[in-house]
Amino acid sequence: MISAVWSAQRQGELINQLTGFWAQDEWDMQECPLLETATVRYRIRFICRFTPINHELKYAVWHKFQRGEWAPQYASRAHQLQVLMEWLNTSAICTKSLVEQDLAKLLVSFRTYLTTKGIAQKLVDKRLDGSQTVRVYPKDDPTLSILRQLYRIIEDVYDLREEYEKSVWDVRKLGLSINDSRTGYTLNFTDLAPDWLCTVGKRFIRYSLATNSVPECQNRLLALKWFGRFLRRRARPIAPQEIDRPLILDYLGYLQASSLSNRSKKMRLTQLRTFLELAAREGWAPVPAQRLIYSEDIPRSVEPAPRYIPEDVIQQLNRHLDDLPSDSQRMVLILQECGMRISELCTLPRDCIIHDTSGDAFLRYYQGKMKKEHTIPVTPEVVAVIRAQQQTVEAAWGDRTPYLFPRRNGEPFKQRTFVEALNKLAYHHQIKNAAGALFRFQSHQFRHTVGTRMINNGVPQHIIQRFLGHESPEMTNRYAHLHDHTLKTAFAAFHGKMVDVHGKIREPQEDVNRSDLQWLKHNILAQALPNGYCGLPVLASSCPHANACLTCAHFRTDAQFLPQHRKQLAETERLLDIAETHQWARQIEVNRRVKTNLEQIIAAVEQEETHAPT
User: Fold this and answer.
1) C-alpha distances in angstroms, 569 versus 500, 552, 597, 600?
2) Could you tell me which residues are beta bridge partners of residue 497?
3) At residue 317, does pLDDT exceed 50?
4) What per-residue confidence (pLDDT) applies to 550?
5) Which of 564, 592, 567 lies closest to 577, judged by CA?
6) What proportions of the chain, in percent to the nearest 5, are helix, strand and coil?
7) Does residue 427 have an active-site annotation?
8) For residues 408 and 311, is the Cβ–Cβ distance under 8 A?
9) What b/e string do you get for 163-174 counting C-beta neighbours within 10 Å, with b at 16 or more?
10) What percentage of the chain reaches a pLDDT higher than 90?
């Protein structure tokens, strides 16, 4: 069905948008306005003998460059466009506009031309599946893809219907907020059948968009498509009023026989139930008003265990990080410490680091899932990684992109690109788990890994909840479940001033200096000890020192540990007497340093106690 109708007026409006460089029939890409420097050496010639179609092709190619979907630096498009126009010149399929013909017919004709000419490319696409096994898929000749992309841009010019009336909705045109790091921004109803289900399904999805995210609406649409496939398998067409309990029972069997996981079956059924009940309530279709899908019909999905990355896999990944592009390397390092969602990392703003009055760094970013700003403390190592990335982006983009990790068109780094790069690395270097199986990375595993590490290092769950930005303790419990047996003593509350081994006060002066952020900073960037706190980050590797806290710059303590310090000073003095009697040089050196530091600590803490308000 042809949805776009050619009109001379619309074609004239299309042509009028082409000005300057883009209006020419030959583009010398050295002079392309989108390039800051003349780094290319190729031309695109628009040679179609049908002048109106020549204009349409220029318009569509301009759009591809303008929207950043094609990079002007790559010359391969010029040859593909040449082949496309040579085919159009030998064909009388279209004379006024490409939209004179349905896209499917054009693709068949073009494919036949390429095959007859002997220039059709038989390509394959190699991809890693969920088990890290290489799968080979046939791939269309790229010139067919070019025709498909350009046609859809031109078709959109002539399709004057509202977006909601079309078979494919572009959510960007609906004014909806989407995460630009995701690849899917359409809702496609073309294969939703029968017709009544498509009509009512559109009303359902439009209603859902008001209160649900675009990914959730895509899942709801997928549930309708599954139900539609089931209905088309019936011996005769099913009208909406004929949907009854026996039909639903048959659908339960259809789902049960599928390869879907219990979780996916549960989603299909709950979403279909929502659809049927809303359709009845709102009068969209004459479906029965009574409930047809009961709670006991819905499979129980086993609550998944935390999908953390085992430490030996993390070590293997870090050994081969240099084989990733520099931006992906830095993304991995940030994820390993901060536990962000990949959507949050891909859209991280360049100016994401802030400092409190003590000079300590915090990472500020937007949590799209929770729809709120979130701030967490970060180590100097993470700050250094972010600073390096900021310098890279500054050199390449100046002020033309707000993102810390932009793509070549300045838009956010794509989530899929990041995960595919990790899994290709895992395949190439044979990164395996303890069972000897190739490990398959998922971006959210890093978030689970951070939560699991913190649990194992004795961080209280309410602190983990605050660090990860969870709305409820139940969300954090998923990380705690696996390692309950390794939980250590929770951190003691901080009292009074903190001092280091030299007796120097280590206390934030005031409010990023809000009390909750300072508490989070101390608890995340410090570990509890019998006589104080270690400033070495919980998320960092194990301590490189052997029982040497009182000579370590990371050590912190306060007044609550004063009895332990006095007791240890007495013991140190006794050991020092023994070492001096026997002239044990190394023991003398170590214990004198410990004695000096203890005396400085005790003096500083006692002084703070003396001046503390009563």
Assistant:
1) 16, 17, 9, 11
2) none
3) yes
4) 61
5) 592
6) 50, 10, 40
7) no
8) no
9) beebbebebeee
10) 57
| Cα 45 to the center of its chain, rounded Å | 39
With CA atoms as reference, report the closest residue to 98 among 32, 133, 146, 142.
Answer: 146
- From the list 447, 453, 497, 556, the catalytic residue is 447
**Lowest-confidence range among 30-39, 101-110, 252-261, 543-552?**
543-552
> Cα(120)–Cα(109) distance, rounded to whole angstroms?
13
Map out the domains of the chain as residue ranges. 8-160, 168-297, 311-451, 496-614
**Phi-psi label, residue 374: left if phi above 0, alpha if psi -120 to 50, beta otherwise:** beta
Active-site position among 166, 330, 341, 554: 341
Distance CA 457, CA 542 (A): 10
Please write down the long-range contacts of 125-134, taking CB distance under 8 Å and 24 or more positions apart.
128/420, 128/423, 128/424, 128/427, 128/440, 130/440, 131/438, 131/440, 132/423, 132/426, 132/427, 132/437, 132/438, 132/439, 132/440, 134/427
Active site residue 470: yes
225 catalytic residue (yes or no): no
- Identify the residue with better confidence: 530 or 45: 45
- The pTM score is 0.73
Give residue 514's pLDDT.
64
Q: Of 158, 365, 403, 479, which residue is the catalytic one?
A: 479
Output the six-digit token pair for 314: 């993390």
Mean pLDDT throughout 133-145?
A: 91
- Across 523-583, where does the E strand assignment appear? 527-529, 532-534, 555-556
Is residue 557's pLDDT more than 50? yes
Between 7 and 306, the more confident residue is: 7
User: Confidence band (pLDDT; 50, 70, 90) for 479?
Assistant: low
Q: Which tokens is 119 given?
A: 């220039």
Catalytic one of 369, 372, 488, 495: 369
Domain 311-451 architecture: Orthogonal Bundle (1.10)
As to burial, measured by CB atoms within 10 angstroms (0-12 exposed, 13-18 middle, 19+ buried), residue 518 is: buried
DSSP string, 83-140: HHHHHHHT--S-SS-GGGS-HHHHHHHHHHHHHHHT----EEEEEE-TTS-EEEEEE-
- 444 carries an active-site annotation: yes
Q: Rounded CA gap, 200 and 284, in Å?
A: 6
Query: Considering 432, 444, 506, 595, which one is annotated as catalytic?
Result: 444
Active site (annotated) includes residue 74: no
| pLDDT tens digit sequence for 245-296 | 999 999 999 999 999 989 899 999 999 999 999 999 999 999 999 999 999 9
Residue listed under structure tokens 């590797």:
541
Which of the residues 202, 407, 470, 554 is marked catalytic?
A: 470
Query: What's the mean pLDDT when you consider all of the chain?
Result: 85
Residue 266 annotated in active site: no
Compute the distance between CA of residue 26 and CA of residue 595 in angstroms, rounded to an integer.
82
pLDDT of residue 277: 96
Q: How many CB atoms lie within 10 A of CB 356?
A: 19
Q: Please check the confidence at residue 305 and state whether its pLDDT lies above 70.
A: no
> In the predicted model, is pLDDT for residue 561 greater than 80?
no
Q: Are 558 and 488 in contact (CB under 8 A)?
A: no
Q: Is the pLDDT of residue 308 over 80?
A: yes
Helices 142-158 and 103-117, interaxial angle, to 10°?
A: 150
Q: Fill in the DSSP letter of residue 489.
A: P
Average pLDDT for 63-73 = 87
